[in-house]
Amino acid sequence: KRPEPVSRGLFSWIPAVLRVPDTDIIQQSGLDTYMFLRSIRTMFIMFAVISIASAASILPVNVKGTMKLTGLNSLSMGNVDPRSNWLWVHIGFFAAIVWWSLWNIVGELRIYTHLRMWWLTHPNTVSKAGASTVLVSNVPKSLANDESRLRDLFSTFPGGIRQVFVNRMCKKLTKNVHTRDKLVKRLEKELTKYAIKCKKLWSKSQDTNSPYRPPARPTTRNSWNIFAKVDLFEHLAAEIAKCNRFIAKSANNMDSMERQSSALVMFNQQVGAHMAAQTVLDYRPFSMGQVTAGVNPDDIIWSNLEISPWSRRIRGYVTFAITVGLTLLWTIIAAALSSLVQVKSLANFEAFKWLRGNSVVLGIFSGVVPSLVLALLMSVLPYILRLLLYIEGTTTRSQIKLRMLHRLFFFQTWNVYLVTIFSSSIFQIAVKSVSEPGKIVELIQTQVPQSATNILTYVLLLAFIGAAKEIVQGVPLALRYLVPKLFAKTPRMMLKAEQPQDFKWEAAIPTHSLIFLMGFSYSFIAPIVNWFVMVYFGLFYLIYRYQFL
Question: By 3-state DSSP, what share of the chain in percent is helix, strand and coil, each rounded to 5?
Answer without folding.
Answer: 70, 5, 20
